[in-house]
Amino acid sequence: MAGLNRRPLFALILGCLACLRHAVPAAAQPGFPGGAMATEGMMSGGFDPGSGGQSPDVNPVAEQGAVAAYDDYRRYLASGQVDKVQGILAAEVRARVGKGPFSAALLRVARNATPDFVASRATLATGQRATLATEGPGPMGLESGIVELVWEDLGWRILKETWTCPGCAQTAPPVVAGAAAAPAPSLGGGEADAAGAAYLVYCRALREGDIAAVKEHLVSDKRAEVDAVPALLVAGIFKVAASVLPAEVKLLKAEVSGDEAVLTAQDAKGGKMTATIRMRKEGGRWRVREESWSNEMPSAGSPSTPAR
């Protein structure tokens, strides 16, 4: 974190996403579907990529094409080949992205959201749909994923990619893991404590990669901005945001004015990281409007009055 300057997390998560609405379609990637259309279904639990036995929902030729398409996507993403990444996305994803190039920063976000080494096999690969089960080593242990592909323009296209880390919840820092209760020490009681507790729950959800819970703790306009981003990239963006947080968060004070609140927080382990978090009460609940983490201590005269 050395050298980290003050920057709003939402600028990292959302502010740079305007460029996602622009991308140029590229040539179709090769692939070959096989068999008849089947009812979509996925096998639960883990898998052994080296094991034999095919599900009746998996056509070997279709599986080979889908796995190859996903491997191509990962290779293009890792090497920053923007046009080729764009060309291997499903049409509905490209439509949300729009025209123009991805930014290099967002390509890195998408790439960093997945393990460096991935084993995959199909749990569904027939007709026009394919689903891959994936596994790979992540920073907190073995991660598993689901990749959905569709057959379009004579090739397999990436529709959605979701990664989870089952062990993340168990490794959450104590301050964050205990966030469901009111924060300690008290921030003054009442709405101040309620706003602080809501922020700590948001931190826990961010660290656990629970996208639905993170969105639930954002104000409505921020949720709308997240919903406008292709689902393929949302998990990676939140993963980067979580990496900015200190290992443990300690709340120092809260200033409340009506439905607005400003929290001050710091690294609970004695680091120099400090934060200003702006909250807003919507629908009877405190939600995160903006947060900025910095390695510079705020000056004594720094304004902290809740902004409307």
Give a topology summary.
Layout: E1 7-8, H1 9-13, H2 60-79, H3 82-87, H4 91-97, H5 104-112, E2 119-126, E3 129-138, E4 141-152, E5 155-164, H6 174-177, H7 190-208, H8 211-216, H9 220-227, H10 231-244, E6 249-257, E7 260-267, E8 274-282, E9 285-294
Antiparallel strand pairs: 1-9, 2-3, 3-4, 4-5, 6-7, 7-8, 8-9
Descriptive report:
- The strands form 2 sheets. This protein has a 5-stranded antiparallel β-sheet with strand order 1-9-8-7-6.
- It has 2 domains: 135 residues, Nuclear Transport Factor 2, Chain: A; 127 residues, Nuclear Transport Factor 2, Chain: A, CATH 3.10.450.
- It is elongated, with a radius of gyration of 22 Å.
- β3 and β4 form a beta hairpin.
- It has 10 helices and 9 strands.
- It is an alpha+beta fold.
